[in-house]
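Task card 7
Instruction: Convert sequence to structure tokens.
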Amino acid sequence: MIEQIYTYFTIEMIYLWLNIGIIPFWLMLIFLPQSNIARIIVRSILPIFLLTFVYGYLIFRFYFTDYDFGKSFALYLSFENLMDLFLIKEFLILFWIHFLTINLFCGSWIVSDAEKLNMNKYFVALPLIITYFVGPIGLFIYWFIRIFFARRIGLYD
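Output:
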């Protein structure tokens, strides 16, 4: 049975499940941001735990293959090394989980912060959608909208 699970969860299948599995979290953040179900399921440690579990599974799996973990640190040495790493599917899936986790964390923070400022969920929906696709831009748009609700500009909070 373990062998069947191992052969089913290929990198391509994990990528597919990640992309499908992350959507309900984002839908809850966008459409039900202040509900108890969003607090319990999305704004808790649960999604981070699930994504970390998949990340750990992949690292464990790659450890027993010929994946060179040392090569991953070469991305800091040059842009060409980074481009080369993105050609390696093992590195790419780990990067993708990293991307999904950070963007979901940012989306969850946006909802929590907007709740503290009593912002209407409709003002937060657009930055959340943009954060889903391109995290830093969505976060910046939220920060810009936040200025009007907080009635102050601050470099830190």
